[in-house]
């Protein structure tokens, strides 16, 4: 079989690459994704005069491929699809959890400023991070009206893909990325640019930060623990044992009582003893038990 006249990929070569990518990034490519792998690798091979997949594999292992080239290869192998307000039920759960948490903390310590930190794992081009920040800002408007106080919040996004993060940091999006954004929200939180694009407003952007990191190596990059960890449409590409070990790492970064929200297809269940499943038929979420 040939994809755009790319060299044939033998089964053995596919298996080498399948294992290599899994080890480096967690991504597990099933046989059905072989054409996708061929497409991603062959363009690079052509530009570098590399004639087969095995040669490229050995070059990578010998460190003969630059960090920038490896980053582009990884980017071409990841699925970066996302949009604003993608998972409504999960977002609703985060909002009500944060509201309850804020009120509980205001009651326990009325004179103390309260902070909530959220983390989007595999944030792609930033829509998920900004959606969470917008929802937190709306929550603050409600808290201001009802209890006369607001929480300080921050949303951190991490992703392995440098190009996706560059888009995220800029915060400029084509209109179709905003298809699910209610009109009132669009008017309140985005500036309409001349060419039909929309830019997220600075008051939201300033609450968000983006970090390049591989989920498999995130320990070194993250210095704090989070009230909410939001991980959607990322682990679906990982093998079951890898999913479990990533979730165990995420739990390490979750504050006691914190909320872990996973996508529905993310994992069938987890055996982490620190987690209690949230009773919600629309989304898969866990609370970290207090120590
Ligand atoms: C399909 S997107 C999901 C985006 C967003 N969470 C959503 O649900 O709309 C998956 C993202 O996970 C990122 N990703 C995949 N493997 C990763 C890894 N090992 N470390 C960090 N990010 C990774 C990809 O680069 C991609 O941007």
UniProtKB/TrEMBL annotation:
<dbReference type="InterPro" id="IPR022642">
    <property type="entry name" value="CheR_C"/>
</dbReference>
<keyword id="KW-0808">Transferase</keyword>
<feature type="domain" description="CheR-type methyltransferase">
    <location>
        <begin position="2"/>
        <end position="266"/>
    </location>
</feature>
<protein>
    <recommendedName>
        <fullName>protein-glutamate O-methyltransferase</fullName>
        <ecNumber>2.1.1.80</ecNumber>
    </recommendedName>
</protein>
<dbReference type="InterPro" id="IPR000780">
    <property type="entry name" value="CheR_MeTrfase"/>
</dbReference>
<dbReference type="InterPro" id="IPR029063">
    <property type="entry name" value="SAM-dependent_MTases_sf"/>
</dbReference>
<keyword id="KW-0949">S-adenosyl-L-methionine</keyword>
<dbReference type="InterPro" id="IPR050903">
    <property type="entry name" value="Bact_Chemotaxis_MeTrfase"/>
</dbReference>
<dbReference type="InterPro" id="IPR036804">
    <property type="entry name" value="CheR_N_sf"/>
</dbReference>
<keyword id="KW-0489">Methyltransferase</keyword>
<dbReference type="Pfam" id="PF01739">
    <property type="entry name" value="CheR"/>
</dbReference>
């Amino acid at each position: 079989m040939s994809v755009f006249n790319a060299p044939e990929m033998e089964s053995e070569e596919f298996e080498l690459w399948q294992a290599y990518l899994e080890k480096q990034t967690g991504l597990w490519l099933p046989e059905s994704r072989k054409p996708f792998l061929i497409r991603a690798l062959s363009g690079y091979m052509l530009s570098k005069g590399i004639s087969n997949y095995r040669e490229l594999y050995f070059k990578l292992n010998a460190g003969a491929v630059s960090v920038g080239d490896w980053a582009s290869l990884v980017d071409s192998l990841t699925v970066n699809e996302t949009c604003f307000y993608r998972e409504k039920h999960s977002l609703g759960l985060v909002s009500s959890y944060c509201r309850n948490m804020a009120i509980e903390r205001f009651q326990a310590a009325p004179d103390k400023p309260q902070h909530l930190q959220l983390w989007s794992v595999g944030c792609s081009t930033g829509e998920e991070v900004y959606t969470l920040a917008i929802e937190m800002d709306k929550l603050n408007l409600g808290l201001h009206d009802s209890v006369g106080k607001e929480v300080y919040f921050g949303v951190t996004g991490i992703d392995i893909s440098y190009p996706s993060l560059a888009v995220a940091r800029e915060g400029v999006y084509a209109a179709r990325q905003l298809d699910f954004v209610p009109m009132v929200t669009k008017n309140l939180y985005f500036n309409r640019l001349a060419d039909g694009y929309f830019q997220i407003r600075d008051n939201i952007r300033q609450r968000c930060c983006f970090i390049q990191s591989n989920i498999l190596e995130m320990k070194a990059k993250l210095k704090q623990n989070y009230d909410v960890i939001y991980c959607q449409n990322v682990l679906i590409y990982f093998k079951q044992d890898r999913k479990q070990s990533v979730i165990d790492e995420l739990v390490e970064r979750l504050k006691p009582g914190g909320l872990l929200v996973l996508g529905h297809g993310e994992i069938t269940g987890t055996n982490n003893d620190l987690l209690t499943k949230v009773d919600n038929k629309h989304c898969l979420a866990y609370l970290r038990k207090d120590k």
